[in-house]
Each structure stands twice: as structure tokens, then as C-alpha cells.
Amino acid sequence: MSLKAKRIVVTGGEGFLGHHLVSYLRSYCSDLIVVRHADYDLLKDESVEAVYSVYKPDIVIHLAARVGGIQYNKANPGTLFYENLKMGLSMIHWGMLSKVEKFVCIGTICSYPRVPPRIPFIEDDIWEGYPEETNAGYGIAKKALLVQCRVYRKQYGMNCIYLLPVNMYGEYDNFSEESSHVIPALIKRFLYAKESNLEEVSIWGSGLATREFLYAGDCARVITIATDSYNSSGPLNVGSGQEIAIKDLANLIASIVHYTGRIVFDSSKPDGQPRRVLDTSRIQIELGFDSSSLLPLEEGLRRTVNWYLNRERV
Question: 3-172+214-241+276-294: which CATH number, 3.40.50.720, 3.40.50.300, 3.30.420.40, 3.40.50.1820?
């Protein structure tokens, strides 16, 4: 599939990952349309129908989502379940009715069982248990879209692919106090502590839980490759295959921003899922993707910190 010859619509193109994907896609696609929430509310069927009738896309990449960190997930499980499911259901359904050539659905690592049978997580194990409770609403909503992609392929012949990205970070990330994920939250907290001469920073959880992180620019590259060349029903993990304990991540970020105070962990607060790391062998086989080309975590964190500091000065 030559992307240059296709009209590609990206939902959520103004969001965190969307900034990276749209920037990367512009090198490969001459007819790229970013669907903005201000113009189209994807929770409304008439807006979804309008996206297809107005733009008549050949390919749709569905990034639009309601997301947040542990605190946001605990406070808004119903909102996260309903809005993510509703947007995805409608976008895929109207894509089928419009006979779109290809639909790229972006899932989440939160769909995996809290304690999967194997670590690293393998795509075939996604149905082997209930997700971690703090983000189950979000994870199950996204997993339901995998079912929709499969059954629409079976009944309607719709070319719908499903990607499972790991936790991402990078420029344009969400630094909101209420809904940020762990990396932007830690960056903001340590910078504030440094500027305020705080002797101590308290972090939720024991610090022992592990996470895998992928620079958003690298994720955008993988999505573009998959959009171009992957056409199967099986989900694909998208990640680095490397995990780091939250304690070590916190120390690394503190070092990058030159915070020298104490770091304490509040084990009375939830850790979330104990371990998260993906098996990325399938994407290497299917796409020929070489994980050695990924940006190292420390370099990606430095870029993210520098972007945040420069943005704050504007």
C-alpha cells in the first residue's frame, strides 16, 4: 500500500501521540487530514458520519481517546469506559459502512490481565484474565474494539488492524495535575521540588512496580510502517521490550533535572499493575522492525524535559 496515493484521516491528531504521528506521516502522505475535536465530537454519531462523508478517507488511523494516569483512572472509570468504547465503536462501524480501505485501531497495554500467564506480555494472552482494577474500564473498552475489528473483518471483509502500544512519553505529553501519566508527573514534580528547594518528594506506590516506556516518535514510526504494510487480524505489541522499576525511573528523572533531595515512596497508595513489559517478537517478524533503532530512554527523557522547560517559557 503506497501511503502517498492515499487520503489518510487521523483522529486525535492534536493530542500527544497525534503530534508525533502527524509530523511523521507528512513525509509519506500528501493527503493527510487531522480530525479536531472542536470540529467533530466523535461521541456523536452524526459527527462520525460527517467525518466519513466530508473527507471520504482511504485510511483511518484512530488515536482519539480519553486517557489518564492512576488517579484519573480511579476517579473516572465510567467516563473512560463509555467514551473510549463509544468513539471506537462508531468510528469502526461507519468506516465499514463507508467501505474504508483500511482502519488502524490503537489499543492499550492496559487491556492485558493484571497478572498475565507469561511475562513479557504476549499478544495471545490478552484474554487470559481481568485487567488491573485501577484501569480496567479503559482497558476493557479498548479490548472490545479488538473484538469489533475481528468480527467486522470476518463478516464484512473490513481491513482493520489493531496495535497495542506500551506506555509512551515524549514532547507534547500531558502534564496536567489531574490526568498525567507517570513520566510527565515525575518531571513536573521534581522540577517544582528543585525550584522550591523542597527536601523531599513523595511518590505513589512502593516504587517496585515495573513499566516499559516507548518514545512517542518511535511509536509514530511503527504505526506508519504498520499502516503501510500490516494487514492481519492479530494484534501487534508495540514497545521497546525493556522494563524499568518506578524507583529507578524516579531516580533517573531526578538526576536529569538535577534534583538532589530525598525521594520517598508511599506504599499505602496503589502501584497499579505489578509488571508491564511486552514481548515484541511478533512485530519484528511481521514488520521487520529493529528495536535497536529505538531512542534510548535517558535520551528520550532529556528531550521531554527540555521540551517542557522551553514550553513553560513561552
Answer: 3.40.50.720
- Edge-first strand order for the sheet with 243-245 is 167-169, 210-215, 243-245
- The CA distance from 48 to 244, in Å, is 39
Reported pTM: 0.93
H helix runs in the chain, sequence order: 16-25, 45-55, 70-75, 77-97, 136-156, 182-195, 216-229, 246-257, 281-287, 297-313
End-to-end alpha carbon distance in the chain: 41
CA–CA distance, 53 with 287 (Å, rounded to integer)? 32
Which residue among 40, 138, 162, 308 is the active-site one? 138
Residues 6+ apart with CB under 8 A from 227: 1, 3, 8, 59, 61, 102, 104, 161
d(CA 236, CA 249): 26
Instruction: Assess contact for 272 and 134: CB atoms under 8 A.
Output: yes
| pLDDT(313) > 60 | no
pLDDT tens, 5-53? 999 999 999 999 999 999 999 988 999 999 999 999 999 999 999 999 9
152/119 Cα distance (integer angstroms): 30
Q: Within 13 Å and on the Cβ side, how many CA atoms surround 66?
A: 23
Residue (of 98, 108, 111, 110) closest to 159 by Cα position: 98
Q: Nearest CA to 227 among 41, 57, 90? A: 57
Cβ pair 79, 28 in contact under 8 A: no
**Is 138 considered catalytic here?**
yes
